[in-house]
Design brief:
Layout: H1 11-22, H2 28-41, H3 46-53, H4 57-74, H5 90-99
Helix pairs in contact: 1-2, 2-3, 2-4, 3-4
């Protein structure tokens, strides 16, 4: 069985994560990520973190690993998702609407 990433926080990181956890303006996902990392740093296991936060163990593992690899910056946003790329160029729309006159 793979060992969970060990999380060791600096005082500054802990303060920032605790600030995020108390924030009234951050979205719930950002607060949850901060809680995951803080609990992991306190030595709480993945199963217990998942149980306490009522999320999947996979989410705990993913955010714990991302923090271990990239620090706070790595948990600030989601990774890009697959899917259809935009087919309309926003710059072209702006150019067409501001610099041309429709026919008719």
């Amino acid at each position: 069985m793979k060992q969970a990433a060990t999380i060791t926080l600096t005082d500054e990181q802990r303060r920032e994560l605790e600030r995020r956890m108390r924030s009234q303006t951050l979205d719930a996902r950002s607060v949850r990520r901060a809680r995951i990392v803080l609990l992991a740093a306190d030595g709480v296991g993945n199963h217990e973190i998942a149980r306490r936060l009522e999320i999947s163990r996979g989410q705990v593992i993913a955010w714990r690993d991302r923090f271990a690899k990239g620090g706070i910056a790595a948990i600030e946003s989601d990774l890009p998702r697959s899917g259809r790329k935009p087919t309309i160029d926003a710059a072209e729309i702006v150019r067409m609407t501001t610099q041309t006159t429709p026919a008719g």
